[in-house]
Amino acid sequence: MSGADLQETAGRIARIQQALYFAQQFLIAAAGRFQKRAALAGGPFFRSGQQFDHTVFFGENVDIHHIFPQEWCKRQGMKPAAYDSIINKTPLSYKTNRIIGGIAPSEYLTKLETGDKTTPPIERQRLDGYLGSHLIDPALLRANDFDAFMPDRQKRLLALIEQATGKAAYSGTAQDEGVDVEGDEDTIEAEMTVSAIS
Q1: Of 50, 81, 102, 178, which residue is the least packed, with the fewest Cβ within 10 Å?
Q2: Cα–Cα distance between 53 and 59 in angstroms, integer?
Q3: How far apart are alpha carbons 141 and 125 in whole angstroms?
Q4: Is residue 175 in some structural domain?
Q5: CB neighbour list of residue 172: distance below 8 Å, 6 or more residues apart
Q6: Beta bridge partners of 65
Q7: Is 174 among the domain residues?
Q8: What is the rounded CA–CA span in Å between residue 8 and residue 3?
């Protein structure tokens, strides 16, 4: 294999690892069993651009946090079934989550771009690249457009899952014959998010 072939193969492996990570987090959330996962291989941190690995994951106290902050969503009168969806979550370090706080996405992006005494500023274009690596459209965050963000990110996550698995993701509403479906939170969330892309 040539050097270019090795680089191409390594890039494919990294994309598959990222897709599997997001797919894993999606499935964990759908089952209501959020846990930290050590199998991280994905995009860079929102704030630093540092790549995820096991050392960084534990050293930076990474966890899954809201992209549109929970407190901001509550102030907008949104229902938890919408803003607590895995679609509105991504891995963030403790420090980045503290910077984000409960303010509007447009405000926390400005804080990240401006920096402060303890946090260096991030160029807008670089920050947009970090967001893109988390399958987030920066324009929708800057507009605080939750209603457009959710179906857009869902499509991006599903495309990543499809790429990793080589199979089309289910996006219909038909139930398997003979299966009883209760109206628990997970089912309601699944119905809401699937219908958003239909």
Answers
A1: 178
A2: 10
A3: 14
A4: no
A5: 194, 198
A6: 90
A7: no
A8: 9
Say if CB 52 and CB 91 are below 8 A apart: yes
Q: Which domain holds residue 99?
A: 3-167+183-193
pLDDT at 39: 30
Is 173 a domain residue? no
pLDDT for the residue 186: 56
Asked if 28 and 35 touch (Cβ cutoff 8 Å), the reply is yes
Predicted TM-score of the model (pTM): 0.62
d(CA 58, CA 7): 28
Q: What is the pLDDT of residue 74?
A: 96
Tell me the pLDDT of the chain (198 aa) as tens digits.
677 777 777 777 777 767 766 665 665 554 333 223 323 334 545 544 555 444 444 445 567 788 999 999 999 999 998 999 889 988 877 777 777 888 999 999 999 899 888 888 989 999 998 888 888 999 999 999 999 999 999 998 888 778 777 888 776 655 555 455 555 555 555 555 545 544
Say if 151 falls within a structural domain: yes
**Which residues touch 138 (CB under 8 Å, ≥6 apart)?**
109, 127, 128, 131, 132
- Please state the domain count of the chain: 1
Phi, psi of 33 (to 5 degrees): -125, 60
Separation between Cα atoms, residue 88 and residue 144, nearest integer Å: 13
Residues 41 and 133 sit within 8 Å (Cβ to Cβ): no
158 Cα distance to chain centroid: 11
